[in-house]
Amino acid sequence: MKKLIITSLLIVLFLFPAIAQRRIVNLPDIPGYVTLKCDFHMHTVFSDGNVWPLNRVAEAYREGLDAISITDHIELTPKKDYIPVDLNAAWKISQNAAKEGNLILVHGAEITRSMPPGHLNALFLTDASTLTGDSVYNVIENAVKQGAFIQWNHPGWKSQQPDGIPRMYNIHYRLLKNGLLNGIEFGNDTEYYPLVLTFCKKYNLAVMCNSDNHGIMSETFALPEYTHRPMTLVFARERSHDSLKEAMFAGRTLAYTGDIIAGKEEYAKSFFNQCISVGKPYFENDKNIYFEITNKSDVPFFLVNGPSGAPGSITLAANRITRVVLSKKVTVPLVYDVKNVMTGENEVLKAELKY
Amino acid sequence: MKKLIITSLLIVLFLFPAIAQRRIVNLPDIPGYVTLKCDFHMHTVFSDGNVWPLNRVAEAYREGLDAISITDHIELTPKKDYIPVDLNAAWKISQNAAKEGNLILVHGAEITRSMPPGHLNALFLTDASTLTGDSVYNVIENAVKQGAFIQWNHPGWKSQQPDGIPRMYNIHYRLLKNGLLNGIEFGNDTEYYPLVLTFCKKYNLAVMCNSDNHGIMSETFALPEYTHRPMTLVFARERSHDSLKEAMFAGRTLAYTGDIIAGKEEYAKSFFNQCISVGKPYFENDKNIYFEITNKSDVPFFLVNGPSGAPGSITLAANRITRVVLSKKVTVPLVYDVKNVMTGENEVLKAELKY
Amino acid sequence: MKKLIITSLLIVLFLFPAIAQRRIVNLPDIPGYVTLKCDFHMHTVFSDGNVWPLNRVAEAYREGLDAISITDHIELTPKKDYIPVDLNAAWKISQNAAKEGNLILVHGAEITRSMPPGHLNALFLTDASTLTGDSVYNVIENAVKQGAFIQWNHPGWKSQQPDGIPRMYNIHYRLLKNGLLNGIEFGNDTEYYPLVLTFCKKYNLAVMCNSDNHGIMSETFALPEYTHRPMTLVFARERSHDSLKEAMFAGRTLAYTGDIIAGKEEYAKSFFNQCISVGKPYFENDKNIYFEITNKSDVPFFLVNGPSGAPGSITLAANRITRVVLSKKVTVPLVYDVKNVMTGENEVLKAELKY
Amino acid sequence: MKKLIITSLLIVLFLFPAIAQRRIVNLPDIPGYVTLKCDFHMHTVFSDGNVWPLNRVAEAYREGLDAISITDHIELTPKKDYIPVDLNAAWKISQNAAKEGNLILVHGAEITRSMPPGHLNALFLTDASTLTGDSVYNVIENAVKQGAFIQWNHPGWKSQQPDGIPRMYNIHYRLLKNGLLNGIEFGNDTEYYPLVLTFCKKYNLAVMCNSDNHGIMSETFALPEYTHRPMTLVFARERSHDSLKEAMFAGRTLAYTGDIIAGKEEYAKSFFNQCISVGKPYFENDKNIYFEITNKSDVPFFLVNGPSGAPGSITLAANRITRVVLSKKVTVPLVYDVKNVMTGENEVLKAELKY
């Protein structure tokens, strides 16, 4: 006989992010589109971050992301006594590593002003060094001439909005009117702003969600509190830089932060339906039928407000199969509120379990 | 803004086995068959185990198994001063819970004799109480009359074979000749016996692998050393008691213990091919091409003895995507030995990576 | 050079409870007494539990406890069709293992009646088989004649008190008056009842806290939610059966459940003071002084309601050193409420940090 | 009743290194000295590291270290196109944070030459910018004029010694002879070099052990493989910069890497004796006596080669109590080899268990 001695790698890789293999993120594609896992907001030593740009590529690679943008601040460069300002540095340094790592690298920068308009990321740039000047409007216009997607960052950030509530000011309306605003962060770091859903639906903008990380990703978003960094899920025609860009301008996104999925109902519903499958009843007795719901995704779903006689709430844990025991007296459709799938400031997805 | 407060369930469920949801075990089906995850050997307080039978059902349910058999010893009942001998007790107590939990419960018992023939499990019984008597041959014959599948347990167990090497004795040949032996444990608890593969291939028996647990499953097979209990993978036409039985008599099984998969080449190859997929090259430069291999399973695969110029070894971590950087000078097929997929006592699977 | 290959055992033992070594529980002694970590309430297959008695000894050993009592129900024996009733069985089976494991085993049983008086544990019995009869008062009297300590269990258990609020009935007052009630469970399983502190202080009873476990301890109280089972901390003259008994009758106890310590102020204060030490300032600048607080215990302490100008709250994480940065303008004593050290239904410990 | 809702911090802090509290490292003081936990070798973006200097302070703070030195390469500055060379930058940037964090910051730099003499750290510098010039001997002399302690780094590093075996060359002997070499790394990153113990004992040098980290400490030395970064334990008269320096020049150190403690027997023995305590027998029967050994440290100890009749090997797991069952027939002293406490290239500590 032999004793088992091969160490299992599952746990090693789960806890030890340095090993150069990619995690498989279980966030399914939706009909017609591939689901790209993206983070469009992070910093390096070239502004007020604490890591070298290649770390951002390595982190994203290991975490199984499809696309990132390094978005150092244009106007905030506190390390300039040691590191001369170079607004394209992170892009230049990271480009090749991203290619070798099968990651889509989006050239970006963060326009960093007081509120209004606050901070805005310009994504899909060709040259970030030109985004300087007194007039933030002109700077944004300049970015858009380069083809940029303009994202309004953390609109409810307490340093700029002490009550935490996002507000649109004249300049935001002016940007909107002239097609110079394309998305807003619903989620940023460990915060999220429900009101952003109202803005995005009203003005048909992309719902965005990003880490805005300045430190070490694996230290900021770590077990047991976090299983993943905040992400923007982009529904693209294919996994390419240009398809990603097209999808973002078309607003085909969802925010994914903590256990929350948020965005337009159309995408939320489609995504939820790909995550779960309801099995046929496998057993019954005098009183009840038994069936199982499989959640093949990394997102747990919290179903609440079930119909009378049915379980009031059902938790569909991530990557788990959940058993439902249902009274035979229940004849109405099994419609639940999915508490953590937000489709509006005060709305959540309604889902029917068809067994 | 709001701070994230929903606790992620992923980690809770991973570490906290008491929550009543099933794990999704990533062990894919193979063409033509569903892969049933089974454990046909465990004990309760009705012999020398330390738990009540319902615990065995609950453990298997949470761990995502498809079928179990509780196989208390016929001849070893050390708790009989407190618990009267009832050889069908575990079966009677567990039946209903198994139905409610969508688990296939196989009625079993362990015939427990000194070597030879050692210990043998009789699976798919109708009444274990009849399996007593001096002649072990008669007892086995009796079991087979009930339709039983006979599994020889831990043939290299040091308590019965001090050198740890399995040996077939006259009685084993007699059982074989009369169709009274159907499978042998390659894996038992944390041990495994490579020579069993030789026996199984020669006599066309099912390769078996089981926990033989007497205590608490989650304590015995726990992180970081173990990610799962030992299992027999059975390739059945469908997920049912009768299909399971048919598949076992047909020998369509693989052993899965620690990181080792072992069994007949036909099933090992088919299973491996369903676990991994090799992507098209996504990048190349002057010297190298880059492609990715996705391992969608819970089993890591350790590829060694690569061709000259290619990476000598490649670890395909479980549930991970592995990048391969290949010199453009390599023109031969990428054939590797899969070190932890055993197809014989001294043979492992050969696999070609077709990118 | 050599590569490190010795696996560190720290994590193995932390997560893998089966290895037969004891955890060191960091709950300090207090001046004059040793702190015994105890659990006086748990079940086995001899009533409605699911494990064999020896498991209870093994669990307590590994978890570093000093004393346990197995307290199977007198009147609730749902497994009696398979296991004949024997009210002393767990005690007989466990005695020797406890001695070999350096564990104090207290002979106990649970008198199990509807409310009032509800469930009561009789601890330090000589023969549990005599505790039967219609009159619960007579049964308790009988136990006390054996020298028993009587503990009222889970007085706010919703199955017996639907609003969750403990209430004392005539029979409780009668027991009290005749010296037949010695302690009440503040904590039971994952619940706790603040009002018990009022009862215990008023009638000078021991504040108790126990697991009441029926299943697997390591599955019920597991990371990340729990780092330990509920315990009664008993302050005894020495680590012996008789000293333990003396201390319990004298009411020298604290409850420890989750992150909560609860009991009489005298013991809570003494215990807290042994857990933490405040260092001298190690640095100062124009505005602030810097000092460190070391928490050598497994209990985190949550300090709130700090004086004006000082940090409003300070978390002294378990087994950690916490830095305090204090404005030089603060001249008042640093008195805080220790939110998780309860000394009354609505009172918590006040503690001064003397740096 | 209330349900427990306070999340325990123990696990949070254990796994989530970003929270600003210090770990208590259980490595006891020895008689006459405090044990300082140190790492004298690490890099930042100012040479070939990937993090900003403040990260090094934050990491060390959280991990509970007492002293660190940031030792960017003098001659290897691959980021100079983006970051102008400033050999004192890490020191200037980190100084204040170290003071606020109660960390001893040692001003250091790595002299980086081909072998011989290889790489050497100069510690306790006043100005690293002067350590340039063709002659490495002159550079070292210059450092020593500043009061520096000279440490020879990773002498068996395969990039400079392909067979992994450290070798002393003429220049090393010349440095030794002139008092310009004070310590050698036994451990570096995940490697260690047993032969260094021979060198250190022969020439009375300090045995050193450091991380040499270029990336993220928490990612490089992470569970389940590592519980801590490599450290040099320095036995100082008090916890201060000057006492640290005195102790290092006096050679009062041990290396601590993985589960290995290595160094001069005098310190190894004293340290081991502070880590463990052997209790009096608590139980005996006809055949055996039972006693417990408490290991209050983070280091597991692997005792092997026990005397005849006693347990052949005993593992004293870290922060655990281990039971020993000893036959009454054993009358000889219980002397063991402590396999993981190396006192020479081929020697380990011998320890007697006096119960």
What does this structure look like?
Four copies of one chain form a homotetramer. By secondary structure, chain A is α+β, with helices and mostly antiparallel strands. Chain A folds into two domains: 20-263, Metal-dependent hydrolases (TIM Barrel), CATH 3.20.20; 276-353, Immunoglobulin-like, CATH 2.60.40. The first copy, chain A, contains nine helices and 21 strands. The first copy, chain A, has a 15-stranded mixed beta sheet that branches. In chain A, strand 8 (183-188) and strand 9 (191-192) form a beta hairpin. In chain A, helix 2 (53-62) runs parallel beside helix 3. The longest helix of chain A has 12 residues, at 89-100. Chains in contact: A-B, A-D, B-C, C-D. Chain A binds chain D through residues 11-12, 15-18, 45-46, 49-52, 54-55, 79, 82-84, 86, 89, 93, 215-216, 218-220, 222-225, and chain D through 11-12, 15-18, 45-46, 49-52, 54-55, 79, 82-84, 86, 89, 93, 215-216, 218-220, 222-225. Strand 1 of chain C pairs antiparallel with strand 9 of chain D, so a sheet runs across the interface.
